[in-house]
Design a protein that fits this description.
heterodimer; A: alpha+beta; Beta-Lactamase; 5 strands; globular; B: 115 residues; alpha+beta; 5-stranded antiparallel beta sheet
Chain lengths: 280, 115
């Protein structure tokens, strides 16, 4: 508590300083996640291009089980600083969590190239190979060991690619993402409505018609090929894209997710779907 | 009615705006740049709106309040209006780099005002 008090005082004296990184991490380790989140977001507002700030925010989000946002933040950290080992390990953790062993190992390998002597990386490799969940990514070297993330999602085995792994790394892969072929047949993912009812087949059947109509509309209006359809509904938002000419991807999220963010998520899902289709 | 369409077409990048009957895809009012076929836009927008509505209802997201089709050389933006949010469609045809947020606002305003 003394440490938190001291760090809070330092930050109050100099709000522009980077002490928010240590304060946020200290609060996170104490389990004061809401306070940690406030510190991290305030810090991010002042230092939006600081990879460490995105890394801190991602770790807090992971502790809060908000894996989708955590993925975005670690992804952003790596874009800003491609050799950020904390973020690379974080992404590896999330990939492993959804069963994408290949991506998990690739990110760990990237982290190892930067820090070959980091024992936690080899440890994570061993755990992955042994089929165990690796510890959630370690914080910055100055911080103390962190608490483990609650195991809420079952890891998928690292076997051959199957339809459950099309959207590995994306939250809601089995309830808000759907990949279908031109005839409306499901290729991967699944959809549930607000009541938890599986609506995959019904939506897939309607989507084939939407895709054909969207293509016809864009062509006849001289707009060229269509590349996306976004819609706001009364209870949820959707984004439609086509990863290949013969496949269509639907992303459904709650109303609170803005269309712009949904489009970014759809872009990422499109890349994953394209990669998965190429491997078939 | 024409004032509402006028406000939409004032947004930079918007090539035309129109009111369309959602049920039969006929033009109710239009303000379009040269070269845009109003009747085609109306028919296609209504048809796509109908299919999208069914898909969204099946997905549990409710009926759409705004949608937009992005294409290589332009975009089609639509807000359903009217009692059942489906009697009329307020439609805009725009350049690909248009400010979507601004057009969306004007479309929603037009729909609220009963266009």
């Amino acid at each position: 508590m003394d440490e938190i008090r001291a760090l809070s005082a330092q930050l109050a004296q100099d709000p522009q300083s980077l002490v928010f990184l240590r304060l946020g991490e200290a609060l996170r380790r104490k389990g004061q996640l809401d306070a940690a989140l406030r510190v991290a977001t305030n810090g991010l507002e002042r230092h939006p291009h600081l990879a460490d700030a995105h890394d801190l925010y991602a770790r807090i989000l992971t502790d809060k089980h908000d894996y989708e946002k955590a993925f975005d933040e670690w992804d952003m950290a790596v874009r800003i600083a491609p050799h950020h080992t904390g973020a690379l390990k974080g992404l590896a953790f999330l990939y492993f969590k959804v069963g994408d062993i290949e991506q998990a190992e690739a990110h760990l390998a990237a982290a190892k190239r930067v820090e070959p002597d980091d024992p936690t990386i080899e440890q994570a490799f061993e755990m992955i190979r042994g089929g165990h969940r690796p510890p959630s990514p370690a914080p910055a070297p100055t911080a103390e060991p962190e608490a483990t993330v609650a195991a809420s999602t079952a890891a998928v085995s690292g076997g051959a690619l199957d339809e459950t792994r099309v959207f590995a790394g994306l939250e809601g892969a089995n309830e808000g993402l759907l990949l279908i072929d031109a005839a409306g047949r499901v290729l991967g993912g699944a959809l549930k409505d607000g009541g938890g009812k599986d609506v995959t087949d019904a939506v897939a059947a309607y989507l084939a018609g939407v895709s054909q109509e969207a293509a016809r509309t864009a062509k006849l209006l001289g707009l060229g090929a269509w590349n996306g359809l976004s819609a706001e509904g009364q209870h949820g938002n959707v984004h439609l894209a086509h990863p290949t000419p013969d496949a269509m991807l639907l992303v459904v999220r709650e109303r609170g997710m803005p269309l712009g963010r949904l489009a970014i998520l759809a872009q990422r899902a499109t890349l994953m779907a394209r990669r998965w289709l190429d491997q078939q | 009615m024409s004032k509402a369409l006028d406000l939409i077409t004032r947004v930079r990048g918007v090539r035309g705006a129109m009111l369309v009957s959602a049920e039969d895809g006929l033009v109710v009012a239009e303000q379009l740049m040269e070269g845009i076929k109003g009747s085609a836009v109306a028919a296609l927008a209504a048809s796509l709106a109908g299919r999208l509505r069914r898909a969204m209802e099946a997905a549990g997201t409710g009926t759409s309040v705004f949608w937009h089709l992005q294409a290589e050389q332009g975009a089609l933006l639509v807000v359903p209006s009217g009692e059942a949010s489906g009697n009329l469609l307020v439609v805009a045809v725009a350049e690909p780099d248009v400010n979507i947020g601004l057009v969306r606002l004007e479309l929603l305003r037009a729909a609220e005002a009963g266009a």
